[in-house]
Amino acid sequence: MKKISLTLATAGMFILGTTTASAAMMQDAPEASKGFTQILKEQFIQGGPTFMGIVLLCLILGLAVAIERIIYLNMASTNSAKLKQQVEDALASGGVEAAKEVCRNTKGPVASIFYQGLDRVGEGLDSAEKAVVAYGGVQMGQLEKNVSWLSLFIAIAPMLGFMGTVIGMIAAFQKIAAVGNLSASLIAGDIQVALLTTVFGLITAIILQIFYNYIIAKIDSIVNDMEDSSISLIDMLAAHKK
To answer: Interior CA angle at 184 toward 180 and 187, to 5°?
Structure first.
């Protein structure tokens, strides 16, 4: 009988423990079922509308600038080797006017630079070279347009986050001074909210930095292509003049 009673008691404790654990798991289930987006949204709301809204605005404007630049740079990229061959063939078969027509029908900064050089070749090779260099600078400015705004948003987003954190910490210490005692539970919530602005500021800066580095690498590639193509054009014009 004692063994049976002990067995029943053990089974009862096991069932009670299992039920308790199941109830705890059911309570934690909604938290576990939350997606990353939902958690991010809740944390964003907890951070407060003032600084979090400004950080979000920096992210939206920065992404808008980045997407516009990426589209522009992809459209500005051309097959310069093919263009150089077409211009060279046009110069050999139809002269300068035929080469200019090829450039007019081709998009991109390289074709525009070629056209400017071909348009000035009648004034001499030196004039054509100066036109190529000058218009290359203009095209470089077009490639780098609005990129400075993107770097500004990268710099200002974490600064705004730090500012929100500092202001939140000041509010937490003011609450401590008003109450007169140091209680972790009293200020934990305020400190958590204050740190959220820094987290979202850093996330914004990281996202925009990735786009910024891609854009800068793309610009460098196009500029190098422009410089190489400009040298090839001057060589072609010099050979055509002979």
So the answer is: 75
Element (H, E) at 160: helix 147-179
Q: Concatenate the DSSP letters of all residues of 87-117 into one string.
A: HHHHHHHHHHHHHHHHHHTS-SHHHHHHHHH
CA distance to 56, 57, 129, per residue, from 53 (Å)? 5, 6, 51
Task: Kindly compute the dihedral angle of the four CA atoms of residues 48, 51, 52, 56, in this order, to the nearest 10 degrees.
Answer: 160
Could you list the beta-strand ranges (E) of the chain.
none
Crossing angle for the helix pair 125-143 and 109-120, nearest 10 degrees? 160
Most confident of 30-34, 117-121, 184-188, 200-204: 200-204
**Digit-coded pLDDT (tens) for 159-190:** 888 887 787 777 777 777 777 666 666 666 66
Tokens for 44?
């964003």
In angstroms, rounded to a whole number, what is the distance separating the alpha carbons of residues 242 and 110? 24
